[in-house]
Each structure stands twice: as structure tokens, then as C-alpha cells.
Design a protein that fits this description.
single chain, about 130 residues, mainly beta, Immunoglobulin-like, five-stranded mixed beta sheet, 2 helices, about 45% strand, globular
């Protein structure tokens, strides 16, 4: 009985959340989308971290209005600068069709989207309200 209690005190604690890493510049296929400019609004797209090894090392290509722009790896983010209005942000993997989110870019709000995988290892994207 004493052994389980002693080992329980040595249980590993969860690591604190790590900040998202930016996508390296050499993986940005269309740099115009990632450059700030007059009248443009920042939109942050994040790929949430996972411990699931089945999807952890898959790259996730990202599309803006149907154009391939970059890809996201586990724990990365990219900031796009877009004109206000409705845009399509799409994500995929080599195993999934492109999943698109109609995204209203509005300078009055924090514009953020989250890329995740479901229990069946399928990619998805959703707007994060803040």
C-alpha cells in the first residue's frame, strides 16, 4: 500500500502550455498574405498541439480564398493580413479533402482560427471567439 502512495507523489505533472511557433518564412508560398499593410486586418491561424502521434507529424496545407499559402505543423501559427470582409480559409492533409471556413474579417474583433484533428484523425478548422 505504501508503494502506490509513494509513486503517486512522483507522478509527472503536465507541462505548462507553450507559445505557438511562427511558420518559418521559407514555408510561406505566397508572402503577400503575411505582410501587414494599410487597411489590412490580422488573422491568426493556429494549429493546436496534440500528443496523438497519428496526426502530430502531418503537415496541414492552408489556403486563403482557394490559393495555397503555407502549411502548418503541430504547434505553429501564421498571421495573415487580409482586407475586411468574408474570406475562405481552408485546410487539408494528404488524407483529407480541403475543409473551408467562411471567415468574416472584421477590424473590430480579434480574428483567430484554430486547426485541430477529431477523434477519427480528420482535420477541422473553427473560428475562436475572444
Amino acid at each position: 500500500m505504501a508503494l502506490p502512495l509513494a509513486l503517486g507523489g512522483c507522478a509527472e505533472e503536465r507541462a505548462p502550455p507553450m507559445p505557438f511557433k511562427p511558420v518559418p518564412a521559407e514555408r510561406i508560398g505566397k508572402p503577400g498574405y503575411t505582410q501587414p499593410g494599410e487597411g489590412l486586418v490580422a488573422v491568426d491561424v493556429r494549429r493546436e498541439r496534440t500528443s496523438n502521434l497519428i496526426v502530430k507529424f502531418r503537415d496541414a496545407p492552408v489556403y486563403i480564398d482557394g490559393e495555397p499559402v503555407t502549411d502548418l505543423m503541430d504547434g505553429e501559427h501564421v498571421t495573415f493580413y487580409l482586407l475586411p470582409g468574408v474570406h475562405r480559409i481552408g485546410v487539408t492533409t494528404q488524407f483529407d479533402p480541403v475543409i473551408e471556413l467562411r471567415f468574416l474579417v472584421d477590424p473590430r474583433y480579434t480574428n483567430r482560427a484554430s486547426v485541430t484533428f477529431d477523434k477519427d484523425h480528420r482535420i477541422g478548422i473553427r473560428r475562436v471567439v475572444q
